[in-house]
């Protein structure tokens, strides 16, 4: 099996608009002088009719090993803490480090998805872009130890054909904001600070570090804002088209 058949990962830009940055209110805020976007990966797959995006926040104890499993839907995620030992059948094992994104392709056996450290916890988030009736995960055998999965809000209420998921890390400066490109399926994870979601006619909703944001099918302008005047926010955004 060629590695190209396992995961097609390319680096592309994520179209994100930014507004002008407000004046820093203190010397401590100078580190937040710019809002920046860094593309982490793009996962490409056969077109599929997605009806929901189900996510999870996984906390692995030191040395914890995941059972061999498959995903029926493209699973795209981000390592929030620590290191993960990852191996797809037919590929070489790799170490995923904090701040990196990953892609688990459909219908391939995932041989390893383990905490690479024997002494420190690992945390990762995982979003599945599911068709109707698809499960979140399919274990070959029941897990031998408890898996600490903390469920995120599911994005649903849409039917949209997509063939790729772009993952970007957006550092939002103090008092700044970003406007995601409309027309995509969007979910996000707050990695640092606080992010407010602002839409016309609705009260702003605030999300703190560790929260997910289930935006779903973005058909009108949505503003993602950093409400702090002094500290930055960091957002990991998953955009499917």
Give an overview in words.
Residues 58-124 form the Cupin type-2 domain. Pfam families: Cupin_2. InterPro entries: Cupin_2. This is Cupin domain-containing protein. This protein is an all-beta fold and 241 residues long. The chain folds into two domains: 8-45 and 168-240, Jelly Rolls, CATH 2.60.120.10; 49-160, Sandwich (Jelly Rolls), CATH 2.60.120. It is built from one helix and 20 strands. The chain has one helix at residues 3-6; strands at 8-10, 16-18, 36-60, 69-70, 75-81, 83-88, 94-97, 101-104, 110-115, 122-130, 138-139, 148-151, 155-172, 177-180, 185-192, 194-198, 205-208, 212-217, 223-225, 233-240. The strands form four sheets. Strands 1, 3, 5, 8, 10, 12, 13, 15, 18 and 20 form a ten-stranded antiparallel sheet that branches. The radius of gyration is 18 Å and the shape is globular. The two termini are 27 Å apart.
Name of the CATH architecture of the largest domain: Sandwich
**CATH topology annotation of the largest domain:** Jelly Rolls
N to C succession of SSEs: HEEEEEEEEEEEEEEEEEEEE
Largest sheet: 10 strands, antiparallel
Counted by DSSP, the helix tally is 1
Helix-strand makeup class = mainly beta
Average pLDDT, to the nearest integer?
Answer: 88
Tally of domains: 2
Overall geometry comes to globular
Portion of residues within helices: under 10%
Give short descriptive properties of this protein.
single chain, 241 residues, mainly beta, Jelly Rolls, 2 domains, 10-stranded antiparallel beta sheet, 5-stranded antiparallel beta sheet, 1 helix, 2% helix, Cupin_2, Cupin domain-containing protein
